[in-house]
Amino acid sequence: MRMIAVSCLAGLVAAAVTAGTLFSQGGGPNHTVTQADMDRWKVELSNWGRWGKEDQKGTLNLITPAKRKQAAGLVKEGFAVSLARDAATEKDSDNPAPYEDVMIRDGSMRTSASDRIAVQFHGLAHTHLDSLAHHFVDDKMYNGYPRKDYVTMQGGATKDSIINVKDGVFTRGILMDIPRLKGLPYLEPGTPIYVEDLEAWEKQAGVKVSAGDAVFIRTGRWARRAKLGPWDTSQQAGLDASVIPWLKKRDVALLGSEASLSVRPLPSTTQVTNPDDSQPVHNFVLYALGMPLFDNCALDALSEAAAARKRWEFLLTAAPLPLRTGTGSPINPIALF
Hints:
The structure is a single chain. By secondary structure, the chain is an alpha/beta fold. It folds into 3 domains: 1-30; 33-85 and 127-336, 3-Layer(bba) Sandwich (Glucose Oxidase, domain 1); 91-123, no CATH class. The protein is built from 10 helices and 17 strands. The protein is globular and about 75 Å long. It starts with a helix and ends with a strand.
């Protein structure tokens, strides 16, 4: 009997690990993630080679024609909501490199006006889509491409670049509104989001994340900023490193958030030492899963639209600039209900 009990316990532990939730000896969730865990996950959970050794699209391969047709069926009203911030042209503590929008002519001398725009879009101010050439671990990027061979100052990104998303994103989007789950207007900076939170939201919202979905995590960053003003961007609510196996198990195609996805600063339960893992979720999914990321989205309007309809799923569309050697692109994702 004892051997059977031990065997059953081992099976339950294995099932919990596969599901993306670890448990402590006391029976509660164990959120501790060590560098050894991160390094093991880079092998066990990796999508390298899953779609061929030459693949550069990563989890976008999960958005199948059937998934697109399913997503198209979600449009009932034709009501559209942008998930992008207005281009921020004013310099601030959380926007050190604002958009430049310079008028070239105003129509006074000719019968048309023209302007020039420029932006350093990576960072924590502007809504953008990270390509798989944006982050490296041990000097490699998604699917094992060596950074030194394919990302250079002279040539830009010649592998894993944003050009691989030229045909756009058309899939089911899901909003996971964590402040609403907790009855709060926003999460305080540094608040970690765990698997238990994501699954509690699924239960409350009546929607379950499945393969090929684009998942957006609302923390209330911009609602807090509107009330209290800007703050140090090294402090952000976001996903805890312990959610990584869950993201792989659910085969999420894209992730979006109101900052850079990972909670900052890292909680004491995240014990990583490799600087490449300094933003564990953000960096891992780009590198190991091949998952493009929407950073600095504005999700308050989407939250209100979804709540008014009691519908947390929608058609998600987005198309980056077709930059052949770009590490990402400014983006304006659109939710359609």
